[in-house]
């Protein structure tokens, strides 16, 4: 299975290198949001002593991932419609290798997009005292979040009727950070909205990354964030594999 996955992953990566516009398109939305919030709205939002670009970057990173996973669904949908799945299944390869190749491609593509967004944030004045271990922890959380959302994307890619439908599922995920602590403190929100913001997964992930960047205590947020990511991953993986088996049976 490992060899099969590696070969198919190489195939998917070659597709990305031949169409780098997909990565560019992925980062346009989060970079545009970062510029707008940083230079238009940032001065009106009170976040304490931290610069606003430092405050909002964790949320922007999650939006970057939510934008990028739509292409995982699109790539899978395109493979299904092209008939190449039938050719793969006629070969002596593990069936699960096809899905895992798309998952690994999503991780690689999103990692590139995240690096680009962090680079733009540095140009905007983002600064952090985080050490190597803190950066590794941030990277691990972002990759786990990407992995969880990618399996959701595969469900969409396997069940969509059109290419547009395959990518549309990502829109609610892109806007979810706006109902969290990503851009404003939850204490400024009205009651029901504040309750939702404080109990949805994005807030705990954002708070954890923000604490790691500032070398502040992460408290219980990190365990809540990991629990959310792991729970979403397990459920999405189960539904995606079930949908895949129905599709190829």
Automatic annotation (TrEMBL):
It is a multi-pass membrane protein. Residues 21-247 form the ABC transmembrane type-2 domain. The keyword Nucleotide-binding does not apply. Keywords: Antibiotic resistance, Cell membrane, Membrane, Transmembrane, Transmembrane helix, Transport. One of its GO terms (molecular function) is ABC-type transporter activity. InterPro entries: ABC2_TM, ABC2_TM_bact-type, ABC_2_transport, Nod_factor_ABC_transporter. The chain crosses the membrane at residues 20-41, 53-77, 98-126, 132-156, 168-187, 222-244. Its main location: membrane. Coiled coil: none annotated. It is found in: Cell membrane; Membrane. GO terms for cellular component: ATP-binding cassette (ABC) transporter complex. GO terms for biological process: response to antibiotic. PANTHER family: NODULATION PROTEIN J. Belongs to the ABC-2 integral membrane protein family. This is Transport permease protein. The lineage of its organism: Bacteria, Bacillati, Actinomycetota, Actinomycetes, Pseudonocardiales.
């Amino acid at each position: 299975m490992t060899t099969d996955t590696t070969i198919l992953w190489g195939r998917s990566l070659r597709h990305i290198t031949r169409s780098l516009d997909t990565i560019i398109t992925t980062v346009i939305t989060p970079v545009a949001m970062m510029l707008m919030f940083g230079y238009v709205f940032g001065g009106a939002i009170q976040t304490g002593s931290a610069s606003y670009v430092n405050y909002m970057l964790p949320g922007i990173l999650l939006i970057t991932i939510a934008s990028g996973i739509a292409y995982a669904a699109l790539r899978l949908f395109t493979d299904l419609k092209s008939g190449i799945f039938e050719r793969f299944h006629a070969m002596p390869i593990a069936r699960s290798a096809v899905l895992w190749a798309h998952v690994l491609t999503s991780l690689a593509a999103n990692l590139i997009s995240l690096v680009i967004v962090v680079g733009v944030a540095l140009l905007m004045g983002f600064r952090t005292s985080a050490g190597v271990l803190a950066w590794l922890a941030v990277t691990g959380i972002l990759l786990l979040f990407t992995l969880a959302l990618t399996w959701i994307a595969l469900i969409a890619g396997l069940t969509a009727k059109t290419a547009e439908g395959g990518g549309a599922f990502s829109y609610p995920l892109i806007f979810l950070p706006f109902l969290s602590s990503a851009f404003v403190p939850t204490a400024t929100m009205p009651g029901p909205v504040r309750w939702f913001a404080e109990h949805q997964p994005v807030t705990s992930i954002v708070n954890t990354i923000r604490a790691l960047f500032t070398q502040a205590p992460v408290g219980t947020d990190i365990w809540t964030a990991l629990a959310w990511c792991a729970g979403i991953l397990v459920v999405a993986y189960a539904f995606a594999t079930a949908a895949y088996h129905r599709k190829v049976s």
